[in-house]
TrEMBL record:
It comes from Nitrospira tepida. The keyword Transferase applies. Residues 14-249 form the MOFRL-associated domain. Keywords: ATP-binding, Kinase, Nucleotide-binding, Transferase. GO terms for molecular function: ATP binding; glycerate kinase activity. Residues 333-438 form the MOFRL domain. InterPro entries: GK-like_C_sf (IPR037035), GK_N_sf (IPR038614), MOFRL (IPR007835), MOFRL_assoc_dom (IPR025286), MOFRL_protein (IPR039760). One of its GO terms (cellular component) is cytoplasm. It comes from the Bacteria. This is Glycerate 2-kinase. Pfam families: DUF4147, MOFRL. The keyword Nucleotide-binding applies.
């Protein structure tokens, strides 16, 4: 792990913090904490499932954490598992014993993802009421399961997803649209099978809404076609999405296309959901590490949303309050927030929300001694880069200027990555195999 900060104490603390957080939300350990088998009895939360009663036991999954989750389920199920199929992001795959692994595009879906989604749909449609289907969902599942609705193409979904990604739409809003362009999302996977369905979910969504995580393929969907249209209009992309997408959504609003399954539907009487990990676990672990290091932790929120630049200004204000007035905590302290910020992309640079947040915060804390601001993506890949995020301090802007680098220009061009890489202030973990949103830290030593 590479943590781009010069000061020894800060580097040591942050390295320990990141390592501990990733262990706390490790998908394999999360599965093992929530699912155990004794003989033929599989216990998952309140579910007690006698595996001898099922003709077939199948595992499917999608997301950045699909591989370690599937490996854990293989070990737990043993001989009772017949087969499985998971779809994960490129670079996140690996060997398994009985489960087929496919890698596909994320965050923009690709042809391999569509092929995987079609295979998965065919598999679940073949199951009967005598079968057990275990569904493993984690961050990234929505993009990795592109099964376009009838009349739509993968290119239509790719174009729409790209426009939403650049618009600043929240993950909840993006998934509301995705559900209504899909044959799997918004409870439609559950509706496609007669099997008993048990979902184990590693949440990457603010508030842990089951209908939003992975676009809720096994959860009821309260959103409507009308909501999807409203979101596209609100972000100014309604007239930019393909005409086929507009036609499909308008048909849905008129009732000519079937809605996604709603809360109260009989479909969900044979479906149960188990949340096995979330951002709260990451935040709590970060706080414990700080306490053990003699640094006072203060948890601000686990629901930080909004523009990265706005959050950066808030963190800058908090930093000045701590340094000048000892509020809301006295140094040494670490203010901790969990969540997922957004970036409205206006430039053509390279970066991600955590890096953009950190670089914007660098301007706010300029000149403040022993103050560090961190943006950290728990999946290890912040935007289309190899960095998990970045650490900045009160000297970042000055160091950049001495190298002829302009922080304001980098931010206006959404080009945080090259500047932070040049300053060696990136956080590099590699793909972590998990995803429970981001951590945003203000460390004052």
């Amino acid at each position: 792990m590479q943590v781009g900060v010069r000061q020894t104490r800060a580097r040591r603390l942050l390295t320990r913090l990141f390592t501990s957080v990733l262990q706390a939300v490790d998908p394999r350990e999360a599965i093992e904490r929530h699912a155990q088998r004794r003989g033929s009895i599989l216990s998952i939360g309140s579910d007690r499932l006698d595996l001898r009663r099922y003709r077939r036991v199948i595992v499917i999954g999608a997301g950045k954490a699909a591989l370690p989750m599937a490996r854990a389920m293989e070990d737990i199920l043993g001989r009772y598992l017949e087969t499985g199929l998971i779809i994960t992001k490129y670079g996140h795959g690996g060997p398994t014993r009985k489960t087929r692994v496919m890698e596909a595009g994320h965050p923009v879906p690709d042809q391999t993802g569509e092929e995987g989604a079609n295979r998965l749909l065919h598999l679940v449609q073949s199951l009967t009421s005598d079968d057990l289907l275990l569904v493993l969902l984690s961050g990234g599942a929505s993009a990795l399961l592109p099964a376009p609705a009838v009349g739509l193409s993968l290119k239509d979904k790719q174009k729409t997803t790209s426009l939403l990604l650049r618009s600043g739409a929240t993950i909840h809003e993006m998934n509301t649209v995705r559900k209504h362009l899909s044959r799997l999302k918004g409870g439609q996977l559950a509706a496609s099978t007669k099997a008993r369905v048990v979902s184990l979910i590693l949440s990457d969504v603010i508030g842990d809404d089951l209908g939003t995580i992975g676009s809720g393929p096994t959860a009821p969907d309260a959103a409507t076609y009308r909501d999807a249209i409203r979101i596209l209009q609100a972000y100014g992309v309604w007239n930019k999405v393909p005409a086929s997408v507009r036609r499909h959504l308008l048909k849905g609003r008129r009732g000519s296309v079937k809605e996604t399954p709603k809360p109260g539907s009989a479909i969900f009487r044979r479906v149960t959901h188990h949340l096995i990990g979330n951002n709260r676990a990451a935040v709590d672990t970060a706080a414990k590490v700080c306490s053990a290091e003699g640094v006072t932790p203060l948890v601000l929120t686990t629901e930080l949303v909004g523009e990265a630049s706005t959050a950066a200004r808030w963190f800058g204000s908090l930093a000045r309050q701590v340094v000048l007035r000892g509020r809301p905590a006295k140094r040494p302290c670490c203010l901790i927030a969990g969540g997922e910020l957004t970036v409205t992309v206006r430039g053509k640079g390279t970066g991600g929300r955590a890096q953009e947040f950190a670089l914007a915060a660098a301007k706010e804390i300029r000149g403040l001694p022993n103050v560090y601001v961190v943006g950290f993506g728990t999946d290890g890949t912040d935007g289309p880069t190899d960095a998990a995020g970045a650490v900045v301090d009160g000297e970042t802007v000055t160091r950049a200027s001495k190298r002829g680098l302009n922080v304001s220009r980098a931010l206006s061009g959404n080009n945080a990555y090259p500047l932070l890489k040049s300053l060696k202030q990136l956080i590099i973990t590699g793909p972590t195999g998990t995803n429970v949103n981001d951590l945003y830290l203000l460390l004052v030593l």
